[in-house]
Design goal:
Layout (H helix, E strand, L loop, with lengths): L8 H4 L19 H4 L1 E8 L17 E10 L3 E3 L6 E6 L3 E6 L2 E12 L2 E9 L2 E5 L6 E7 L7 E5 L13 H6 L13 H6 L16 H8 L5 E2 L21 H17 L10 H7 L14 H9 L27 E6 L9 H11 L2 E8 L9 E2 L12 E14 L6 E6 L12 E5 L12 E5 L4
Parallel strand pairs: 14-17
Antiparallel strand pairs: 1-2, 1-9, 2-3, 3-4, 4-5, 5-6, 6-7, 6-8, 7-10, 8-9, 11-15, 12-18, 13-15, 15-16, 16-17
Helix pairs in contact: 5-9
Bound molecules: 2-acetamido-2-deoxy-beta-D-glucopyranose (3 copies).
Length: about 450
C-alpha cells in the first residue's frame, strides 16, 4: 500500500455525497461472467405510442417472454438463431441484438448511498425495438435462477462522517470550471487493488488478430484531427459551466468532428448537449451518463438537434423542449474492438485515423487540475487525495504521437472542460500505451449521418 494512503479511503469514498441527489447515482458494477448465461426477457406493452415516445415507467400488460442465452464474450442466441450479439455497457447495463431486435436495460439496484444492493441477475425496465427503430416495447430481464448469481453489495455509510463535504472543497478551490462531486462508490476491494500508476481494473483486452496488428503498424506515427494536411476537423471547445456531464460534451464533440470529416467541413453543426441533459432517459443529466448510450444509442433512437434549437442551460434539469428542428442520427455505434472488453491501444488508433475522433473514459484524479503542460500521467505523491478518483470523465481523443525528446507516447485529448480550466485551451496530452487513467479501457465510436 505504501504511498497510497488508504486509511482515508473510506471517508473519501463518499466525497461530497450531499451535493447531488444520490438517487441519480448508478452503483452497478456487473461483469461479463455475471451476465453470461440464460435470461428471460419479459416483454410489456408500456404506455403511449409504440415508437420512441413510449413510456416504460409504467409497464402495462405483459406480452411474450423471450429466452436468450448470452455466451462467450459477445454471442447472444435463442433456440432459433445464434447470430446475435451482446455487450455489457460500462458495468451498468447491457445491450443485446438478436433477430433484428435491439434490447437495452440497466441492471437493477436498490438502496441508498449508505448501502447499495446491485442485482446483476435482474434489470430495471428497459427498451426494445427493431433495428429499424420501429415496434417499440418495454421489457424486464431476469437471469434464470439456476445460474450462478452474484449480488454485489457496497456499504459505505458507516465510514463516512459529517466532515465528508469538506473533502471536496480543496478540489473545487483548485479550479473553478467544474465541481467535484459524488465519488464512485463502487467495490471497495477493487479500489484497494488499484496501484498508484495503473488504473481501475479494466475489462481484459481480447487478443487482436494478426491482420489488425499489421494494419496498426502501417498507421502514421502521429495524427491530429486539428491538422490533417493543414485542415482542422475538430469543432470548437465548449465550456461546461457548472455541469460536468462530460459524457454528453465528448459525445457531441465526436459526432460534430465526424460530420466535418464526412462532409469535408461543408457541414459544421454544433449539437445540443442540453437535449441530452433534459431528454435522455439513457442517462441522468449532468450527474451521470455513458457515451455509448449517448453518442450511440440515444443519437440513433432519437437524433440530436443543433445547439440553437435547444441552447445550453448550464445542464439544468429543464423540461425536454427542443424546437422542432431537423435531427442528426447515427447509423451505427460500437465499443472499439466490437464490445466492452475488446479495446486495445492499436484498435483505438485504427478507429481514430480511419473514421475520426473517439470518446474514452478518463478517470480524473486530484493532480489533473494542477496539470499545466507536458504529457499527463497520474502521479501518486502521497497527498490527501492520492489514488482517489474524483469523477468519471469522458473525453474526446483527437490524435496521438510520440514526444521527440523523451520517446513517450501520448494521446491528444480534447477535455471539454472549457478554456478556463488549464492553460491548454481545452486540449492536453495523456500518456499512451499504459491505459493511463483507464483511457484505453473502453473507447466508443459512432457514425453520424450528415444532411443531404
Ligand atoms: C411516464 O409515466 C409516468 C407514470 O405514469 C409519469 O409519471 C411520467 O411523467 C411519464 N414520463 C414521461 C416522459 O412522459
Ligand atoms: C437474483 O438473486 C437474488 C439473490 O440470490 C435472488 O433473491 C433473486 O430472486 C434473484 N433474481 C432472480 C430473477 O432470480
Ligand atoms: C475539401 O475542401 C478543401 C477546402 O475547401 C478543398 O480544397 C478540397 O478540394 C476538398 N476535398 C474534396 C475531396 O472535395
Amino acid at each position: 500500500m505504501g504511498l497510497c494512503g488508504y486509511s482515508l479511503l473510506p471517508v473519501l469514498l463518499f466525497l461530497l455525497s450531499g451535493v447531488h441527489d444520490a438517487s441519480s447515482y448508478n452503483p452497478s458494477n456487473c461483469l461479463l461472467n455475471d451476465v453470461q448465461g440464460t435470461w428471460v426477457f419479459q416483454v410489456f406493452e408500456g404506455q403511449g405510442p409504440k415508437d420512441n415516445r413510449i413510456n416504460c415507467s409504467k409497464l402495462g400488460s405483459p406480452k411474450n417472454k423471450v429466452v436468450i442465452h448470452l455466451r462467450g464474450l459477445n454471442v447472444a442466441e435463442d433456440h432459433i438463431s445464434s447470430s446475435g450479439f451482446f455487450t455489457i455497457i460500462h458495468k451498468k447495463g447491457f445491450e443485446v441484438v438478436l433477430n433484428d431486435y435491439k434490447w437495452f436495460a440497466f441492471f437493477k439496484y436498490e438502496g441508498n448511498y449508505r448501502h447499495w444492493t446491485v442485482y446483476c441477475n435482474e434489470t430495471f425496465p428497459g427498451w426494445v425495438h427493431d433495428v429499424q427503430g420501429k415496434n417499440w416495447a418495454c421489457f424486464t430481464a431476469k437471469k434464470s435462477s439456476d445460474e450462478n448469481i452474484r449480488i454485489s453489495e457496497a456499504r459505505h455509510g458507516q465510514e463516512t462522517n459529517s466532515n465528508t463535504h469538506e473533502f471536496g472543497k480543496p478540489i473545487n478551490r483548485a479550479q473553478n470550471s467544474w465541481t467535484a462531486t459524488g465519488y464512485e462508490k463502487s467495490n471497495v476491494n477493487q479500489m484497494m487493488k488499484r496501484s498508484c500508476h495503473s488504473s481501475f481494473p479494466r475489462p481484459k483486452p481480447v487478443s487482436m488478430s494478426q491482420i489488425m496488428l499489421h494494419k496498426a503498424q502501417t498507421l502514421p506515427r502521429s495524427w491530429d484531427w486539428r491538422n490533417v494536411n493543414g485542415v482542422n476537423y475538430v469543432s470548437p471547445v465548449r465550456s461546461h459551466g457548472n455541469c460536468y456531464g462530460s459524457y454528453a460534451f465528448a459525445s457531441m464533440a465526436m459526432l460534430e468532428a465526424r460530420i466535418r470529416i464526412l462532409t469535408n467541413n461543408s457541414q459544421t453543426p454544433v449539437l445540443s448537449t442540453q437535449q441530452i441533459f433534459s431528454c435522455s432517459e439513457y442517462s441522468q443529466g449532468c450527474e451521470e451518463g455513458i457515451s455509448y448510450l449517448t453518442a450511440g444509442k440515444y443519437a440513433q433512437d432519437f437524433g440530436i438537434v443543433e445547439e440553437n434549437c435547444f441552447p445550453y442551460l448550464d445542464g439544468r434539469a429543464t423540461p425536454c423542449s427542443p424546437k422542432n428542428c431537423p435531427r442528426y442520427y447515427v447509423s451505427e455505434y460500437h465499443y472499439v474492438g466490437g464490445f466492452y472488453g475488446a479495446c486495445t491501444e492499436e484498435l483505438m488508433r485504427l478507429e481514430l485515423v480511419e473514421h475520426g475522433p473517439i470518446v474514452s473514459l478518463f478517470e480524473v484524479y486530484d493532480d489533473l487540475p494542477r496539470h499545466r503542460k507536458g504529457i499527463y500521467h497520474h502521479k501518486c505523491n502521497g497527498g490527501m487525495f492520492c489514488n482517489v478518483k474524483l469523477i468519471n470523465f469522458e473525453v474526446l481523443i483527437i490524435g496521438y504521437g510520440t514526444d521527440e525528446e523523451t520517446g513517450e507516447d501520448y494521446w491528444i485529448v480534447k477535455d471539454g472542460l472549457g478554456t478556463t480550466w488549464t492553460e491548454t485551451s481545452g486540449f492536453f496530452r495523456v500518456r499512451r500505451g499504459t491505459n493511463e487513467c483507464g483511457i484505453e479501457g473502453a473507447a466508443v465510436a459512432a457514425t453520424p449521418v450528415p444532411r443531404l
